[in-house]
Amino acid sequence: MIRWGVVGPGEIAAGFAEAMRLVDDGEIVAVASRSTERATAFGDRFGIPTRYGDYAALAIDPDVDVVYVATPASRHEQDTVAFLEAGKHVLCEKPFALDARQARRMAEHARGRGLFLMEAIWSRFLPAYRSLVDVLASGRIGEPLLVEADFGMRWPVRPEHRLFDPDLGGGALLDLGIYPIQLCSLVLGSAEHVAAAGVIGETGVDEQVAAVLRHACGALGVVKAAIRVTMSCTARIAGTGGSIDLPAFMHCPNALTVTTRPGGAEHIDGSYEGNGLQFEIAEVHRCLTEGLTESPVMPLDETIALASTLDAIHAQVLTSAARSRSSVPVHAGASDRRRAR
Fold first, then answer.
1. Residue 246: CA atoms inside 13 Å, Cβ hemisphere, count?
2. Given the residues 75, 88, 89, 94, the one annotated as active site
3. Would you say 180 and 204 are in contact if contact means Cβ atoms under 8 Å apart?
4. Is it the case that residue 103 has pLDDT exceeding 80?
5. Parallel, antiparallel, or unpaired: how do β-strands 2-7 and 66-69 relate?
6. How many CA atoms, within 13 angstroms, populate the side-chain half-sphere of residue 86?
7. pLDDT grade, residue 332 (50/70/90)?
8. Residue 169 — left, alpha, or beta (φ > 0 → left; ψ -120 to 50 → alpha)?
9. 196-250 per-position pLDDT tens digit
10. CA 101, 103, 104 angle in degrees (round to 5)?
11. Whole-model pTM above 0.90?
12. For 196, phi and psi rounded to 5 degrees?
């Protein structure tokens, strides 16, 4: 039985705890929050015996084998490193870090101590994504040359919410854009060049982002993300001999459609019980049981490469937004100047 500690008992952690009920060889034995009341409420809700009002106490708990870090993205580096230094394995929620520098430091700490560390990109472990990998490996759609994917939802602007708080790592790119970008990485490998633009909202976070990623052998990824407009939330992989379509929501699809020429279309079922987080939990358990310190499905080198791509996109979004503001004519009305900001 693998014993888990959960840090940051918010909505995402609640989904994680729900999924743990579908896993036979693991249990959550401790939860920590900076608020004793929140830790107690979470423990009561999910039957977790040990509750801590600070993270340091969980770090030294000898009954915890691995820690799920579900704190805001702005704390991921700090919290992950602290638990690694305490000798704990770590599953860190996405986005793994605020930038590639932080991601590299986290990976170095894990590797230097021989401990397991993985970014919790749960999509990679879902049945539909495992089927996608199998279809690609079979060569049924030929050489994949284009991935098109978007993920956007409309939220009301709430400056206190993590999505709209730059200090908490808010914005469309890190929270939602990671899903289309990781799909490009899964299918085409790491991006070699980025061209991106976006819109910075009134709270200072990127609210809309679009990017074209150039990969090896001339393959392209076309990705979009938004927190102020609803998008199709679908994806399409086009190859020299066919295509694969991922329906909404592309980060957790229940099926795939594979179209080949000739051959027509095939519907591949990828449905599952529960919220789907149990599959990434099972991967952590498999790796720990086999003595692996990294998941071959979501290795740290790819996580660092994804962070580098996010860095490049974010830098260009800031540049494009600055140019947009500076391009507002001096005679523009107040409403035009507000829109430019």
1. 30
2. 94
3. no
4. yes
5. parallel
6. 23
7. very low
8. left
9. 999 999 999 999 999 999 998 899 999 999 999 999 999 999 999 999 999 999 9
10. 65
11. yes
12. -145, 160
The confidence score (pLDDT) of residue 326 equals 64
In three-state form (DSSP H/G/I as H, E/B as E, the rest C), the secondary structure along the chain is CEEEEEECCCHHHHHHHHHHCCCCCEEEEEEECCCHHHHHHHHHHHCCCEEECCHHHHHCCCCCCEEEECCCHHHHHHHHHHHHHCCCEEEEECCCCCCHHHHHHHHHHHHHHCCCEEEECHHHHCHHHHHHHHHHHHCCCCCEEEEEEEEECECCCCCCCHHHCHHHCCCHHHHHHHHHHHHHHHHHCCCCEEEEEEEECCCCCEEEEEEEEECHHHCEEEEEEECECCCCCCEEEEECCEEEEECCCCCCCCEEEEEECCCEEEEEECCCCCCCCHHHHHHHHHHHHCCCCCCCCCCHHHHHHHHHHHHHHHHHHHHHHHHHHHCCCCCCCHHHHHHHC
d(CA 195, CA 186): 19
Residues 6+ apart with CB under 8 A from 143: 217, 239, 240, 241
**Confidence class for position 328, pLDDT limits 50, 70, 90:** very low
Q: Which residues pair with 195 in a beta bridge?
A: 212
Phi, psi of 312 (to 5 degrees): -65, -40
Amino acid letter, residue 276: G
**Is residue 94 among the annotated active site residues?**
yes
CB proximity list for 196: less than 8 A, separation 6 or greater: 209, 210, 211, 212, 312, 313, 316, 317, 320
pLDDT one-digit tens code per residue, 11-45 = 999 999 999 999 999 999 999 999 999 999 999 99
153: nearest Cα among 223, 81, 217, 233:
233
